[in-house]
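[SOLVED] Predicted holo structure with flavin mononucleotide

Edit: marking solved, answer below. Original request kept for reference. I posted the sequence and ligand SMILES and asked for the 3D complex as structure tokens.
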Amino acid sequence: MGFATTAMEFMVYAFVGVIGALALTVVIFFVIDRSQTSDAIRRNYPVIGRFRRVFSALGEFFRQYFFAMDREELPFNRAQREWVKRAGDGHGNTVAFGSTRNTSVVGTPTFVNAAFPPLDDQHSKTEPMVIGPGARTPFVAPSFFNVSGMSYGAISRPAVQALSRGAKVAGVWLNTGEGGLSPFHLEGGCDVVFQIGTAKYGVRTEEGHLSDEKLRAVAEHETVRMFEIKLAQGAKPGKGGILPGEKVSAEIAKIRGIPIGQDSISPNRHVEVDDFGELLDMIGHVRDVTGKPVGIKTVVGAEAPLRELFELIVKRGADVAPDFITIDGGEGGTGAAPMPLIDLVGMSVREALPLVANLRDEYGLKDRIRLIASGKLVNPGDVAWALAAGADFVTSARGFMFSLGCIQALKCNKNTCPTGITTHDLRFQKGLVVEDKYKRVARYAKEITKEVEMIAHSVGVTEPRLMRRRHVRITQSDGRSIPMNEILPSYNPVAKM
Ligand SMILES: Cc1cc2nc3c(=O)[nH]c(=O)nc-3n(C[C@H](O)[C@H](O)[C@H](O)COP(=O)(O)O)c2cc1C
């Protein structure tokens, strides 16, 4: 009895104490909110105004689970992400009942089914494609779908390791991004494309110029198949950056070739390239030094500069051409970039790719320059569209991030990525188990290939690169669809139609 009374008294005191503490907190917050001057809502609605921020933050997480419809979110909706997840699971990718896709949205591509598609025994395998036939060591690329550039630094060590091992299993290439070549890119043994960013990380002299000696050393790795000179990426054309000193660990400093602990500047373009003539000189130089194919990555703003480039190539001779051009759409992703550049600058790949393909063909460079397309091309229909529009290859960054488990938390710039992909916090990296994730990467790449082949067979051709613009119809504002070759005719209609 005595014990029960004491316990009861204790609970009453505890209850009163908690209520008292809560009341005191409310009073303190009230005084703070009323007296601060920076937040009008909290000043006018003390204490309650604080919930607005809490709910906004929670909304970011809960929207995708409870409120957003399958096809609603941006940059990628649930249907797109779930397709990658199911592909990574390897449990087959069929869905039930019917499509949730709204095909009346302007710009939606649909494919033209053939009356008599090729029979199963008439399908052919997608042939490997040669890139840079004039280089001392051309690259025979096995897959039309590959991993786009993401630097070690923007993504974590286990992410790079899983991509490298998964890419090897699937037979696809892995682009290093602009952060240099790390041992983790190489450890899976996949084909690697080395990207030369404006800071020339990994192949730079102390002053930040190209080092031929380091270029040669990178090219000596047999699995480094090509070099890509980055002019711009879709999410941030014309933007350089600063790598803050605190992020330049001994490891990063070694890989990138910069001093430990000091800020490192990426200029907003290659400082030694002022015009297309100098760009072609640089491409030729890197090809001479490395012996491997060399291309460029850029975003298209308008047609005129591309004409200037192609005209110059024709004038100097096709040998000087870049071996490939990667067209990144304005809708492309990034680890971090200013919102105006992400949202407002650079043409969508849906517009840019057909434009560049036509120009390349018009200047007679179709067999000389390979076109690689990227920009939200993460599901089979997107990849099939790009091949039909004129791409020789498609690459994806965020598609492969989804295969690694990305949940689109939009925290790539904060070191708090909950799935361990874009963070260097070991606590979060623990969630990204390379041994499991590399298999998902491989299954995703293979499933894309399989389903793009399925679309190709459905439109009546035996392999994906035989798809043409006439095989795709684009929905118009009046609800009707029109064949893509009527809206965006290929340069050589006889060959393309
Ligand atoms: C985390 C992250 C890091 C990236 N780092 C680079 C980079 O180092 N160099 C580059 O050219 N592009 C970089 N990109 C852009 C991608 O390579 C790609 O061009 C773009 O995201 C479009 O492809 P996607 O829509 O499939 O993501 C990065 C993208 C992401 C999401």
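OP edit: Residues 2-35 form the longest helix (34 residues). Thanks to everyone who chimed in.
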